[in-house]
Amino acid sequence: MLITIPEDIKFVMAQLTTNDYQVFAVGGCVRDTLLDLEPKDWDLTTNAKPDEIKEIFKDQVCHTAGEKFGMIAVYSFTHDRIIEITTFRSDYNTNGRHTDVQYVSSPYEDSMRRDLTINALYADIRGLVFNYHTGLFDLNHKIIRTVGLAYDRFQEDYLRMLRAIRFTARFDFILDPEVFDTIKLLAENINRISAERIQVELKTMLKGPNPVKAISLLEQTKLLKYILPELFLCVDYNHFNPHHDLDLFKHQLATMKKMNEFYQKSQVSESSIMAALIHDIGKIFTQTFNDQGYANYYDHDLAGLPIIDNLLKRLHYSNAERNHILTIVKYHLWPHWMINDFKKNNKFNIKSLRKFTKNVLSEYTTKEDESYKKQAIQDIILHALADDSNKPDKDNSRKYFVLNDLSRTLQSTIPVQPKPILNGYDLMELGFKGPEIGFLTKELLIYQDKIYPEVLTKDQAKKWLHDERIITYYYQQVGESNHE
């Protein structure tokens, strides 16, 4: 079987072959080409050692950070891309987290260290494919299978269990029964892998073409129990509510699926998919029953926040990502409330809409938050639409899009966390001190918001403090004498 090798890749390969070295394209580039997909990268493997590779490509070497693992990166000037060239190698001293490597002399020996058969396909400079295992058969029959025994491959690196599931979902293949059973047997070992590596795999699954299949396989193999135990508790959890015909786990999967569809259309942020997957975790801790025997989940949005915060910290999400996901969860019920108000009055309550928009935007206070703040309103409202899309009554989509347009219009006009016109130094110059300053600052912000869009000058603010006798009110509240 032949594949087409891009000209710049063939040029690099030719420089190795003319120096009497073997060289092959390997892994995802061969696999994706055979599946008629555009490869993200082209990786090469050779019997040339790192020093020999550097000598051949001394004018093209891009970086040598991976040299201790046998990898040298060279630059393709014609196609403006990096090509990684790795020496044939095999693994030893494996402990499930990292592996030591040693150089070998043939592509077959190199193939024995690879995780999946579909990733162990090689192609020479002519494009001739070398199939040392069952890679071609497995591609044709849509099977995800390990190179050799699954138990051996996973014990070399337990992250491979997540990779097997990710590829199964990405290509909508079947997970080989031996691989499935072995993952289930070794699932608890996933916690030996760093949180950062797990996070990367999880994010890739969520933004991939089939996140429901990926998360479902995590649940079936018990990996979910160790990666997201909070979500695992939701499996088979009955809502006992006429507004839900799915259990809690499947409801969140369905919401996540819809958010993924929005993401594929560039309508929501990547982080919003994770928020959808875990947005109702608080329901487990807030279930009560009314006289009709139906369950209610009052304040489940707020109850879930500390649980989700700990979950995201455990997986080492960045502060900005964590804040955005928590904000979506915190406000995910607000659009529902505003839609219900619309149904009663046949119009939106602009005051409520303005409060919603202002409150959401006030959650984003750092420079790192800026990109998420721009997307926040739309993420939350489309989350609410996704949340409703898997319920028995699904007639709200038009109203949500109207709500989204209104909110985005307001977003451009509402000041977010305005700075008080008088700062701490200004207030100290007026003779105020200690807790008085904090109180006055808060009152100024409230007043500034009340008179918006009018803007106070410093002199007007000082006059307002004096005329309204704000500090007198403060001491009446705390039961002390007036400030002199």
How would you explain this protein's 3D organization?
The protein is of the alpha+beta class. The chain has 3 domains: 7-141, 2-Layer Sandwich (Beta Polymerase, domain 2); 261-411, no CATH class; 424-478, no CATH class. It contains 24 helices and 13 strands. It has helices at residues 7-17, 28-34, 50-56, 107-111, 135-140, 150-156, 159-171, 177-186, 195-206, 211-220, 223-227, 229-232, 248-264, 271-278, 300-314, 319-331, 334-345, 350-361, 370-389, 397-411, 424-429, 435-451, 458-467, 470-478; strands spanning 23-26, 43-46, 61-63, 71-76, 81-87, 89-92, 100-103, 121-123, 129-131, 143-144, 174-175, 288-289, 295-296. The strands form 4 sheets. The protein has a 7-stranded mixed beta sheet. Strands 6-7 form a two-stranded antiparallel ribbon. It has a two-stranded parallel sheet with strand order 10-11. Strand 12 (288-289) and strand 13 (295-296) form a beta hairpin. Helix 14 packs across helix 16, helix 18 (350-361) crosses helix 20 and helix 19 runs antiparallel to helix 20 (397-411). The chain is globular. Mean pLDDT is 89; it is low at 480-484.
Tell me the span between the first and last alpha carbons. Answer: 92 Å
Question: Globular, elongated, flat, extended or rod-shaped: what is the shape?
Answer: globular
Determine the mean pLDDT: 89
Biggest β-sheet description: 7 strands, mixed
Summing up helix and strand content along with how strands pair, one would put the structural category as alpha+beta
- Number of DSSP helices? 24
Spatial order of strands in the largest sheet = 3-4-5-2-1-8-9
Per DSSP, what share of the residues sits in E-state strands of 2 or more residues?
Answer: 5-15%
Count of extended strands? 13
Helix percentage range: 40-55%
Radius of gyration: 29 Å
- Low-confidence parts lasting 5 or more residues at pLDDT below 50? 480-484
The number of distinct structural domains comes to 3
